[in-house]
Design goal:
Layout lengths: L1 E7 L5 H14 L4 E7 L10 H17 L6 E5 L8 H13 L4 E6 L7 H6 L2 E3 L8 H19 L7
Parallel strand pairs: 1-2, 1-4, 3-4, 3-5
Helix pairs in contact: 1-5, 3-5
Subcellular location: Cytoplasm
Protein name: Ribosomal RNA large subunit methyltransferase H
Keywords: Cytoplasm, Methyltransferase, rRNA processing, S-adenosyl-L-methionine, Transferase
Length: 159
């Protein structure tokens, strides 16, 4: 399985990079996982609704350019579907079983994802009703992907 994590913004925090690198290393025996970082748009605090949509649309164009037609897209969004770790594992297993070998998880910038990206998504995923920094979501997501493979493989990691 080829998994991409398409994310807006650069990851600067070393502690997050170290955590992500550890899970990426662990995942090499299960899947090819790559992280695609895309530039974010400048978004000052006092943007109008229209300006916010423009920022999300520009970021959305960058995201869509990285997604091929045969990629199964899962958009991370606060209003997305909440799933247990076991359900995510089942979903990934089902995708692999039915020939969907390209999966992309999409993490938007500080304003979220554009409507066009949400429409392109085959599924949505929410980790909580709480808001998390999108940089931290990368670490949480890659850990959950690793956990899913361990669940599917019957490994002792998931307890």
């Amino acid at each position: 399985m080829n998994i991409s994590i398409v994310s807006i913004g650069k990851l600067k925090e070393k502690y997050l990079k170290h955590g992500i690198d550890e899970y990426l290393k662990r995942l090499t025996v299960h899947a090819k996982v790559e992280i695609i970082e895309l530039a974010d748009e400048k978004a000052p605090e006092n943007l109008s609704g229209t300006e916010m949509e423009q920022v999300k649309n520009k970021e959305g164009e960058r995201i869509l350019a990285k997604l091929s037609e045969d990629t199964h897209v899962i958009a991370l969004a606060i209003e997305g579907n909440m799933k247990s770790s076991e359900q995510l594992a089942k979903d990934l297993d089902k995708l692999a079983t039915y020939g969907k070998s390209k999966v992309a998880f999409v993490i938007g910038g500080s304003l979220g994802l554009s409507e066009v990206v949400m429409k392109r998504a085959n599924d949505t995923l929410s980790f909580s009703k709480m808001t998390f920094p999108h940089q931290l979501m990368r670490l949480i997501l890659v850990e959950q992907i690793y956990r899913a493979f361990r669940i599917n493989g019957g490994g002792p990691y998931h307890k």
